[in-house]
Amino acid sequence: MSVLKKPLVSEKMALLNERNGLKFNQYAFKVEIGATKPEIKKEIEDLYGVAVKSVRTMIYAGKSRMRYTRTGFVSGKSPRYKKAIVSLATGAEIDFYKNI
Predict the structure, then answer these.
(1) Which residue, 7, 29, 46, 87, is most buried by CB atoms nearer than 10 A?
(2) What is the CATH number of domain 4-88?
């Protein structure tokens, strides 16, 4: 089973990748909660064929949600997830849009 769930492509990640015209080669992925840094590194190197310099991980807690409907309040919780920010070696690049 794959450790990576999906890449996180957002404006914040684009700014993280390029700051002040410099290329930092950092990409974010949503990963399985139990994934370790070596597992994430190996999976990205195998899948994208790039050299990974470092991996940073963080676990986001699920947020409580409440909505008012005709029948009353409906409450729930969004799931928690783990995010990995991967720094690539100099000159390496991942293109998420090449297969579109």
Answers:
(1) 29
(2) 3.30.70.330
